[in-house]
TrEMBL record:
It comes from the Bacteria. Keywords: Hydrolase, Metal-binding. Belongs to the FAH family. The keyword Hydrolase applies. It comes from Jiangella anatolica. SUPFAM superfamilies: FAH (SSF56529). InterPro entries: FAH, Fumarylacetoacetase-like_C, Fumarylacetoacetase_C_sf. This is Fumarylacetoacetate hydrolase.
Length: 289
């Protein structure tokens, strides 16, 4: 199943895809689901209940549905408990930065204030003269999770999404201990426009075959497949769940095949096979929208 948060009647509303190219607002099926998708994810509904919810939504009158071509996407949600980012998870990207690939995941946390969604502007902060964008596969945790083994780790994933993770690279270059600072400016975490449940996303294919591409102004910066990650998605879930618990809606951004420098006026893009593209225009801080 495919879920998104849309702007409907001037308010953000969770929706599920139906009839191929339409979205059904979920509050029309269950009033408790008014608002963003975090409400639904936190309920930890089993797959059968999610499927039934989607079936009921598909029966709504046509006039209550939103055509995909007319949809205005918002961030899927704005207040996850945690956002984990993973650095240097592809060998080629580590080489770009003249770094070696770490034996254990090199991770950092981003605050929810960094969140934007599809169509929002990425804002280059005044402090930075070299900001980059990085396309990544995002894992959305669906269950309370602690000390889960790698074999069962993906059972705790609700779904996947596209991510654009931004870095003030010039600030990071000053000192490697400035990683948190370089990653946590407002607008430095875009995700969406949809979250797709893992079963649908993987139907008929292996996660290792999924390709992720970073693009800037329609130019491919780098593309690679999940199978070339140093630390697999299952390993990332298991490793971090041994450190601290995950909660429904927490996000793991699994690392990028390559980063592209962005400047005011360009379009940053994350392309993940099987997901809608995630695109964000770039502007300078203080510039008009």
């Amino acid at each position: 199943m495919r879920f998104a948060t849309l702007l409907v009647d001037d308010r953000e509303q969770a929706a599920v895809a139906c009839h191929g190219d339409q979205w059904a607002p979920l509050d029309l099926v269950d009033p408790a689901l008014a608002g963003d998708l975090l409400v639904l994810i936190e309920q930890q509904r089993p797959p059968g209940e999610l499927a039934e919810l989607a079936r009921l939504a598909a029966r709504l009158p046509a006039g209550r549905l939103v055509a995909a071509g007319e949809a205005v996407y918002r961030p899927p949600y704005r207040r996850p408990r945690k956002i984990w980012g993973i650095g240097l998870n592809y060998g080629d990207h580590a080489a770009d930065l003249h770094e070696s690939t770490p034996d254990q995941p090199a991770s950092f946390i981003k605050g929810s204030h960094t969140i934007i969604g599809a169509g929002d502007d990425i804002v280059i902060p005044r402090q930075s003269r070299r900001t980059t964008t990085e396309a990544e596969l995002g894992l959305v945790i669906g269950r309370d999770t602690a000390e889960v083994g790698r074999a069962r780790a993906l059972d705790h994933v609700f779904g996947v999404c596209a991510v654009l993770d931004q870095t003030a690279e010039d600030i990071l270059a000053l000192n490697p201990r400035y990683l948190t600072r370089s990653k946590n400016f407002p607008t430095f975490f875009s995700f969406g426009p949809e979250i797709v449940t893992l079963d649908e996303f993987l139907a008929g294919r292996e996660l290792t075959d999924v390709e992720i591409a970073t693009r800037v102004d329609d130019v491919d910066i780098r593309r690679d497949v999940v199978g070339n990650m140093t630390h697999s998605p299952a390993e990332l879930v298991g490793f971090h769940s041994a450190m601290m618990p995950f909660f429904p809606g927490d996000v793991i951004s699994t690392g990028t095949p390559g980063a592209g420098v962005v400047t005011p006026g360009v379009l940053a893009e994350a392309h993940v096979d099987g997901l809608l593209p995630l695109t964000n225009q770039v502007r300078a801080q203080g510039a008009p929208r």
